[in-house]
Amino acid sequence: MAIVSRIFIILAILNAVLLPTSTIATEYVVGDDSGWTIGLNYQTWASNKDFKVGDKLVFNYPKGIHNVFIVNGSSYANCIIPPPSKAHTSGHDIVSLMSPGESWFICGVGNHCALYNQKLAINVKA
């Protein structure tokens, strides 16, 4: 019986040491309690976050008031929606971060991006 216990302990230790640890994805609510809206500095919001591949961004906003477009860096800088972009419009949009590198998001309603800076740029790490 003691041998079985020792083998079990050795196997448990080897399992913990040799098997790669899995990373748990984090779900970030963009803007925290304020959500996706005008009047927030999303770069400040993102500055203390460590975004990784597999994480999710949740954009909460009143449906019909805002939307979310995933854009490229140039479109982000100029608040332009490039064709054929599709808006996320549910009011509770979940975007999975699938690849490392820069990711950009803007609101395409009216001048929310250009006048009210409703946009977010993040760096996703592998």
From TrEMBL:
Subcellular location: Membrane
Name by which UniProt lists this protein: Phytocyanin domain-containing protein
Keywords: Copper, Disulfide bond, Electron transport, Glycoprotein, Membrane, Metal-binding, Signal, Transmembrane, Transmembrane helix, Transport
Annotated InterPro entries: Cupredoxin, Phytocyanin-like, Phytocyanin_dom
GO MF term (any one): metal ion binding
Listed CDD domains: Phytocyanin
Topological relation to the membrane, as annotated: Single-pass type I membrane protein
Stretch forming the signal peptide: 1-25
Domain Phytocyanin intervals: 26-126
